[in-house]
From TrEMBL:
<dbReference type="Pfam" id="PF01127">
    <property type="entry name" value="Sdh_cyt"/>
</dbReference>
<keyword id="KW-0349">Heme</keyword>
<protein>
    <recommendedName>
        <fullName>Succinate dehydrogenase hydrophobic membrane anchor subunit</fullName>
    </recommendedName>
</protein>
<keyword id="KW-0812">Transmembrane</keyword>
<dbReference type="GO" id="GO:0020037">
    <property type="term" value="F:heme binding"/>
</dbReference>
<feature type="binding site" description="axial binding residue">
    <location>
        <position position="72"/>
    </location>
    <ligand>
        <name>heme</name>
    </ligand>
</feature>
<feature type="transmembrane region" description="Helical">
    <location>
        <begin position="60"/>
        <end position="81"/>
    </location>
</feature>
<dbReference type="InterPro" id="IPR034804">
    <property type="entry name" value="SQR/QFR_C/D"/>
</dbReference>
<dbReference type="InterPro" id="IPR000701">
    <property type="entry name" value="SuccDH_FuR_B_TM-su"/>
</dbReference>
<dbReference type="GO" id="GO:0005886">
    <property type="term" value="C:plasma membrane"/>
</dbReference>
<keyword id="KW-0472">Membrane</keyword>
<comment type="function">
    <text>Membrane-anchoring subunit of succinate dehydrogenase (SDH).</text>
</comment>
<keyword id="KW-1133">Transmembrane helix</keyword>
<dbReference type="InterPro" id="IPR014312">
    <property type="entry name" value="Succ_DH_anchor"/>
</dbReference>
<keyword id="KW-0249">Electron transport</keyword>
<keyword id="KW-0479">Metal-binding</keyword>
<keyword id="KW-0816">Tricarboxylic acid cycle</keyword>
Length: 116
């Protein structure tokens, strides 16, 4: 039986697997940093948060993490939807919904980090 309906991120299972692992590393690094920041800060105030989020490197790190969440989510949801949703039309609709939500959240984060 030939596969004739592919909407994965890369059209290659190995590449998708590598995306999952690479994004998981970014997510782990962000989590470790954030946990260390929370534990290492004696008092967290608005000024502390403002100072942290004012740094360009942290904005880039946060945006990279949000993009990693979007890619990681897409690859995982693609696998789930491909395995468990058999009607092509419904699967395509759900995949488009996942893409839409990932894009909206990423754009929202971009606006929050560098918005006016």
């Amino acid at each position: 039986m030939a596969v004739d309906y592919i909407t994965s991120l890369s059209k290659n299972g190995l590449t998708d697997w590598l995306y999952q692992r690479a994004t998981a590393i970014v997510l782990a690094l962000y989590t470790i940093f954030f946990a260390g920041f929370l534990i290492g800060s004696p008092e967290i105030t608005y000024a502390t948060w403002s100072h942290l989020f004012a740094a360009t490197w942290f904005k880039v790190f946060t945006l990279a993490t949000v993009i990693s969440v979007a890619v990681h989510s897409w690859v995982g949801m693609w696998g789930i939807l491909t395995d468990y949703v058999k009607p092509n039309g419904l699967r395509l609709l759900l995949q488009m919904l996942v893409i839409f939500v990932c894009l909206i959240i990423t754009l929202w984060c971009l606006l929050i980090l560098w918005g006016a």
